[in-house]
Amino acid sequence: MSIDDDPETAVTLRSIAEEIRQSEGTNNEQIAAMLYRVSDLYDPAESTTTQDIYLNMRNILNVKERGGLHRGSDSK
């Protein structure tokens, strides 16, 4: 799937992501990060694909499910 460059949409998505990030909620940071990543699809300065975003989001969700990056490791 190809998405056309649309800087206005990128700005709108990033603005919404910032609003979500600043509001209270347990998953807001994660949702904002995902929304910001999706905005990269519309930014002509970014070179990303829907597959890149899917893999990145899947990684974010997997890390959250495991309890964070350092869960179960010796490093703190």
Notes on the protein architecture:
The chain has helices spanning 7-22, 28-39, 50-66. With 76 residues, it is mainly alpha-helical. It has one domain. The longest helix is centred in the C-terminal third of the chain and has 17 residues, at 50-66. The model has no long low-confidence stretch (mean pLDDT 86).
User: What's the pLDDT, averaged over the residues?
Assistant: 86
> Biggest sheet, open or closed, and with what strands and sense?
none
Number of helices: 3
Sheet-strand content, in percent, reads: under 5%
SS-based class: mainly alpha
Secondary-structure element string: HHH
Q: Helix content range of the residues, please?
A: 55-70%
In angstroms, what separates the terminal alpha carbons?
A: 41 Å
Q: What is the 3D shape? A: flat
Low-confidence segments: none
Domain count: the total is: 1
Cα gyration radius (Å):
14 Å
- Strands, total number: 0
List the helices and strands and how they pair.
Elements: H1 7-22, H2 28-39, H3 50-66
InterPro entries: DUF7976
Pfam family, one: DUF7976
What's the gist of this structure?
The protein has 76 residues and is mainly alpha-helical. The chain has helices spanning 7-22, 28-39, 50-66. The chain has one domain (7-66).
Core attributes:
3 helices; 76 residues; flat; mainly alpha
